[in-house]
Every structure is written in C-alpha cells, then in structure tokens.
Amino acid sequence: AQKITQTQPGMFVQEKEAVTLDCTYDTSDQSYGLFWYKQPSSGEMIFLIYQGSYDEQNATEGRYSLNFQKARKSANLVISASQLGDSAMYFCAMSANAGGTSYGKLTFGQGTILTVHP
Amino acid sequence: EAGVTQSPTHLIKTRGQQVTLRCSPISGHTSVYWYQQALGLGLQFLLWYDEGEERNRGNFPPRFSGRQFPNYSSELNVNALELEDSALYLCASRLDRGYNTGELFFGEGSRLTVL
User: Fold this and answer.
1) How many whole angstroms from its chain centre is CA B46?
2) Residue of A31, A45, A95 to mutate, interface with B, max B Cβ within 10 Å
3) Cβ proximity of B54 and B75 under 8 Å
4) CB contact under 8 A, A42 and B108
5) What is the rounded CA–CA span in Å between residue B108 and residue A79?
6) Angular region, B28: left φ>0, alpha ψ -120 to 50, beta rest
7) Model pLDDT for residues B67-79, shown as the tens digit of each residue
C-alpha cells in the first residue's frame, strides 16, 4: 500500500520569498511517480510537477522544483519567488510505475494550505 | 482541446435520495478516475475505469457505483444518500498508453450537498 504524509496543515510566506512544502511517502514499489497538485478555492486540481522514482535529477517547472530524496522517501515542493496567486491548497500524490502504462490510482496526502502575504 | 468536463457543477439532495454525476474525459483518454473530497480533507479514491471496465475500487460502500461508456465518458451513482456524502466529487482522466508521466487531468468537480 502507498501512503503520503504532509505534516504541515498550513504555511505562510511573504510575497517574493521561497517556501518549501513537505511531503514524505511510503511504498513497497520499486517504480513509482510523485506528483504535486495545486487546488485554488475554486476547487479545480492543477498539476504542477512530476518526479519519477528513477529520475536522478530533481524535477523543475518554472518556479516549482521538487526536492527528491529517495533514501529519505521525501518529495518536497519548493516554490521560489512566491506570488499572491500561489495561495491555495497543495497536494502531494504518488502512483505506482514511473513511466509506461498501468499506473493505477494516485494516492494523495491531506494537503497543505499555503497563504502568501503581500 | 477541451479538458475534463463534469456535470452538474452543484446540486442539493436530501437524505435517502439518489444522485448521478457525469464526467467526460479529455479526448483520447481511456481511463477515468473518481475521487471524493469532503470539506477540508484530502482526496479519497473512489473508482477507476479503463476501457469500460472497473479496474479498482476504493474503500467505499456498494451504494457508490459507476460505469464507463464506449465513448469513455463515465457516471458515478450514489444511492441512499447520507449527510456525510456531502463533498466535492472530482473526476480525472489519463492516457494509459505509451510512455508518459501518468498525471491525472481533473475536472472542476461536482459539489454535492446532502440535507
């Protein structure tokens, strides 16, 4: 079974500063994928970034980067230069198989509410 | 290209009633997932359909059911509604062919209130 743990119910950051959202995971799968999604108050889930378990380099997408530490089973999201529009709920998720078919379901953490102050 | 579309966006039901939620995946996507998100909580996996078959089911009672049609659209049915069924129901689709990251593409959800 897969499990995602997000220990920060809420985080605050000043506009233009960087913030790290924590995520740890547990799985017995050798091949898996890790994801971060953003959920604004409107409810839609927006895909931010992906990291495959066999990827040696940390994933980056614009202001988002994923700090992947496989031995520690952590996949923290780093948002650089925070903007007011970054205020939202952030979910870490994982699925079996990194790349290829037959992924199965995504298992989500409980989420972290990020508030960006001007 | 159209994203995942869900209907209705909002609905109110009373206890004991039945509800049907609908989802159209992104064109070309064959897998549809349903998640329940109760207020302030994370996403709980409900159902996964692929090529018309139910592939996996979350820890929900049998009154939660669904199906996938030949055009890959999907319905989620909830019978004998209970107050705790009040939630945002999110549908997502994915292309389960070839090499890709496996990300899910979500619709905007159907917000169900049970009174």
Assistant:
1) 7
2) A45
3) no
4) yes
5) 24
6) left
7) 999 999 999 999 9
